[in-house]
Amino acid sequence: MSFNFEIKKHSTESKARLGKIDVNGISFDTPVFMPVGTSASVKSITPNMIHESESKIILANTYHLILRPTLDVIKEFGGVKKFMNWDGAMLTDSGGFQVFSLSKLRRITDEGVEFRSHIDGRKLFFTPKSVIEAEHIIGADFIMCFDECAKHDSTHAYVVDSIRKTHKWALECKTYHDSQENSNYQYLGGIIQGGMYDDLRRESALTLSDMDFPFYAIGGLSVGETPELMHEVLAKMEEFIPKEKPRYLMGVGEPRDILNAVMEGVDMFDCVMPTRNARNGEAFTMNGAIRIRNSKHKKDVSTLDPDCDCYTCKNFSRAYLHHLDKAHEMLFSTLMTIHNVRFMQIFMSELRKSINDGVFLDFRKKILSSFYKNNI
Amino acid sequence: MSFNFEIKKHSTESKARLGKIDVNGISFDTPVFMPVGTSASVKSITPNMIHESESKIILANTYHLILRPTLDVIKEFGGVKKFMNWDGAMLTDSGGFQVFSLSKLRRITDEGVEFRSHIDGRKLFFTPKSVIEAEHIIGADFIMCFDECAKHDSTHAYVVDSIRKTHKWALECKTYHDSQENSNYQYLGGIIQGGMYDDLRRESALTLSDMDFPFYAIGGLSVGETPELMHEVLAKMEEFIPKEKPRYLMGVGEPRDILNAVMEGVDMFDCVMPTRNARNGEAFTMNGAIRIRNSKHKKDVSTLDPDCDCYTCKNFSRAYLHHLDKAHEMLFSTLMTIHNVRFMQIFMSELRKSINDGVFLDFRKKILSSFYKNNI
């Protein structure tokens, strides 16, 4: 098994890059968007439908999988990809974000984090080693180091100590991972933290660079700060992240945030937004989001997006989707999710083309004005 | 457009018959099972998935469609088949059953029924003509007369008056329908009522026979009586229902009830059971129902049914389904429904084969003992 990242083209206008990742026999172009399959399911769609969207890689959440179905069950299947019948690529996060955002009663020490499950209140203790052990059992192609995801408004002093722990844990994760056979076919990424502080972001990027991970994630962004601040933090830290390796911005995102991050040299993205918003009645198009619950769609025979080739757009009207939502039919979530995931992949494909054609900044400008101009 | 029913084979052992229905260019063999798409959606599955189950005809509920999305919307699309993107055959009931089971504040007169919507309390008045008008707009291939569905424990005197109204309404429905162009491509069935009273069932069957409908439904069964009583009522009324026309037992059902009804010469069935039970965690197999929530399935790598060729059985384990249910993932309903609908079509296909092979009674006996022997 193998991992390779090749940069095929650098944008001359910005730090954007067009690349290709090969991992364990699966190839995909970057910048890439990964739909989220939190609990071993991209909510409301089948693996066939994920493939039809041309998604090549999905994300699953280690924290959720440890709680349910539990590692015991996943081990029985030789990994979560077989468990959920997904034969594309997969990345698992480390649970760090969820421990800090979902769970209760956290006690953070240099050894790890003690917390209570948000499902049944059960007490758990995550350590760098226990998380990597879990990710080995889950068996994704890409796995992440356990980190502390500090709040966006944390003080400088807090973040200083937080990244010290994150760096210590990263080294422990890597040392343990490298000692295991799984390191021959699972690739561990380091997570750069540092809050909104440029000096700490730089320190974190440089410290992790020295550890020589095969790819780098940027954590602790898109956690409540403004899009402008996120862009600024990314712009200032870019030069300190190894250029020849994939860069992954965790939990992002919105077309706007993806465009800004690609402009600063980011290659990989994941976000629940397209799937979650689909279920909440928001369908994406290049001209903005359609709020399908709006009564003006009641008799609308048009499809969500005449330019979209997804199953939903080829077969169903806005009026039908509006009706399914009103009638609380589960098919609503399925059809909306099919569309939004496909939208993201079409968006990424056009974004990659714009880099290839040397017109990324124009593309960015066009989408920023069309996607956000209004709601249909 | 056209309608034709051909009986291809009579069972020599029972009143079971093997037939073929051609309607508006769509063909299917009988006995046939119709999945229910109440509100223009077979709950949690796409039209593609309905086709994959080899379902050729589905049912939709006039009552529900009148309330939501409303006839106004359906008219805009030229019928509910186009609205929901279903290109197989369709049958609509008349709303009679729902008016009596779901709605409140009923006032029944010889002219029709006044009631309140179970959704918003809005007052509505259904008459034989208004129901046929609605079914014309909805546009199914097969439509039904408006009838009164009496409770299974109604007195003889009540049912005498009830079938008098049902017969009067049937004639009004037929007269109006025959006067309309839609009668060239929509086929109206009469509904035989009569409660559990053999004399009234006979009277209803004979009265409606005289009206010469292209097919006949048996209503007012599977409404709370025992399976044995239902079988008895069917057995005694069979000789009074025209033999050369399709016979449809409304709202049935269970494999047991289908087997009993086929034995008494019934050709068509519909029921929410396979789809509803799927969502409630019950997967059907020829050896009985699997209650997937049972914790013994937690690590079970086997599929629901090794003999089933559905997408669920070809790709997912019981443990995965158990997990999806626990994690409240919507994909659970989709995968379970795919299986149960396909199960029903495999069951019907084997049932038809047993008639063809002259071994229907053996098949019935086998299923009655295997399906009901236990729960897995």
Description:
2 copies of one chain form a homodimer. Chain A has 376 residues and is α/β, with parallel strands linked by helices. Chain A folds into 2 domains: 3-271, Queuine tRNA-ribosyltransferase-like (TIM Barrel, Alpha-Beta Barrel), CATH 3.20.20; 278-371, no CATH class. In chain A, 41% of the residues lie in helices and 19% in strands. Chain A has 15 helices and 16 strands. Chain A has a 6-stranded parallel beta sheet with strand order 4-14-13-12-11-10. A 3-stranded antiparallel beta sheet of chain A has the order 1-2-3. The first copy, chain A, has a 3-stranded antiparallel beta sheet with strand order 7-8-9. In chain A, a hairpin with a 4-residue loop joins β7 (104-108) and β8 (113-116). The mean pLDDT of chain A is 96. Chains A and B meet through α3, α13 and α14 of A and α3, α13 and α14 of B.
Key structural traits:
6-stranded parallel beta sheet, 3-stranded antiparallel beta sheet, 41% helix, globular, 19% strand, 16 strands, homodimer, 376 residues, TIM Barrel, alpha/beta
